[in-house]
Amino acid sequence: MRIAIAGASGLIGTALGRSLRTDGHEVVRLVRRTARDADEVEWDPAREFVDTAGLAGCDAVVNLAGAGVGDHRWTDAYKKELRDSRVLGTATLAEAVASLDAPPRVFLAGSALGYYGDTGDRAVDESAPPGEGFLASLCVEWEESARAAEEAGVRTAFARTGLVVAKEGGAWGRLFPLFRAGLGGRMGDGSQYWSFIALHDHVAALRHILDTETLSGPVNLTGPRPVTNREVTAAMGRVLHRPTLFTAPAPALRIALGEFAGDVLGSQRVLPAKLLESGFTFAFPGIDEAIGAAR
Length: 295
Fold this sequence. Notes:
By secondary structure, the protein is α/β, with parallel strands linked by helices. The chain has eleven helices and 16 strands. It has one domain: Rossmann fold (3-Layer(aba) Sandwich). It has helices spanning about 10-20, 75-100, 135-145, 145-150, 170-180, 200-210, 230-240, 250-255, 260-265, 275, 285-295, and strands at about 1-5, 25-30, 40-45, 50, 60-65, 105-110, 125, 155-160, 165, 185, 195, 195-200, 215-220, 225-230, 245-250, 270. Strand 1, helix 1 (about 10-20) and strand 2 form a beta-alpha-beta unit.
C-alpha cells in the first residue's frame, strides 16, 4: 500500500512509518516546507494548501499532526495553536482527499480521549457523548473538521488516543526519567483513571483500522484495562525497581500547570470497545507489560 502520513516525525508517526516500511509499504511524508525527497509532499494547513499531486495513488491518508497538549501552559494563544494545528490540519487534508479523482480508501484522523471529559470511575466506550471542558470541545470540532472526506464517500475513522506508554516522548516520556531517578510519585490523590496504551499496540491498532473495512467513526485507542494513577505509580516502581515516595499535590499542580492541571488530575476510564469487537488483540494489555515493553 501507499500511505501518506501528516505528523510523520512525531512519536506515533515515526513508529507507524517504520512499521509500515518494514512490511514493504510505501510511506509518503507530508512536510511543511518545499518537498526535497521523493517520499515527501508539501502541505501548509495555515494556507489550506496540500500538493494533491503527491497524494495521487495513495490507499490511505493518516493525519497525526498537532501541537503537543502538554508542551506549554494553556494561554489563550496556545489554546488557539492547539485548535488550529488540529482543526485546520484535518480540514485541509479532508478537503484534499475529497478533491482527488481517485480518493484513498480510508482517511484516518487523529483525535483523543479528551473527547469524553472527566468520566470519574465510570467506564465509557465510543457510544458515550462528549464531555465538558476545553479538550472535549476541541475534540468535537477536530472530528467534525473531517466532514469533507466523509461526504466524499471515503471511509473515515478517528483514532481517539489514550496515554501512550513510550520512553521516546509524550506524557510517559517525561515520567520515565523521574521514576528512574527515584523522584516519581502519584499526582494528587492518585484515584484518577489513566487510560493507557503501549506504543507497540497503538501502532498495531492504527494499522488494524487501516486494514479493517468495517471500522469507521471514532475508535478508542487505549488498552483494555484502565488503571488509576496510584496503580500507575506502583507499577512504575515495580518495573523500574525504584521507590515512589514523592507526591505532586493537586494545589501545586494547578499552580504549575494552570488549566492543563484539570486534565492531569481528571479521570478517564475509557474502554476500546470497537477494537475488541473487530478482533484486535493487544500484545501488552496490562500496565506492567506496557511499561516493561517501553523501558
